[in-house]
Design brief:
This protein has 179 residues and is an alpha+beta fold. It has two domains: 2-35, no CATH class; 44-177, 2-Layer Sandwich (GTP Cyclohydrolase I, domain 2), CATH 3.30.1130.10. The chain is built from eight helices and seven strands. The N and C termini lie far apart (42 Å).
């Protein structure tokens, strides 16, 4: 990967041997591996057995989970927050695991629409919940730094599964609690 970054820098018209750029290919490769570390993770590894029995059947919400991802179209960052709600069906997942699931999918080349669905599907699969709701709000550098160059635009996506999709009252409760 270092060689590829060196080639990109040279194709930009820069001298990869100048002092400020000598170690840039190595640093860029290391950064890219970090930014896409979600490819090295699986749902089972992330959850690591942190499932706990419960009699609670009321909504559980974790909101404002910050996320950093990279769009698969331009490899530019998008930055935002994710809100996750679910209704337990006999078990709950460890609190930090929800944020770790968001990170696992965010740390892949991604579009926000797909990431929203992936997070919802993963929470549903892991918990066997009666329903799951996920909302992601993000600002996309591919829209801010290039192309249309709109600095104040943001994107919101949602995915509702189970009772969050079939029951309007459940959906409304979730959406009002994350505001």
């Amino acid at each position: 990967m270092e060689k590829e970054f060196a080639s990109i820098i040279e194709q930009l018209g820069e001298d990869v041997s100048r002092p400020g750029l000598v170690d840039t290919p190595k640093r860029a490769a290391k950064a890219m591996k970090f930014l896409t570390r979600g490819y090295q993770q699986s749902l089972d590894e992330v959850i690591n057995g942190a499932m706990f029995p419960t009699e609670n059947s009321e909504m559980v919400i974790v909101k404002d989970i910050e996320l950093y991802s990279m769009c698969e179209h331009h490899m530019l960052p998008f930055i935002g927050k994710c809100h996750v709600g679910y209704i337990p069906n006999g078990q709950v997942i460890g609190l930090s695991k929800i944020a770790r699931i968001v990170d696992m999918y965010a740390r892949r080349l991604q579009i926000q629409e797909n990431m929203t669905k992936e997070v919802a599907d993963a929470i549903m699969q892991a918990t066997g919940a009666a329903g799951v709701g996920v909302v992601i709000e993000a600002k996309h550098m591919c829209m801010m730094m290039r192309g249309i160059e709109k600095q104040n635009s943001s994107m919101k996506t949602s995915m509702m599964l189970g009772i969050f999709r079939s029951n309007q009252a459940t959906r409304t409760e979730f959406l009002s609690l994350i505001r």
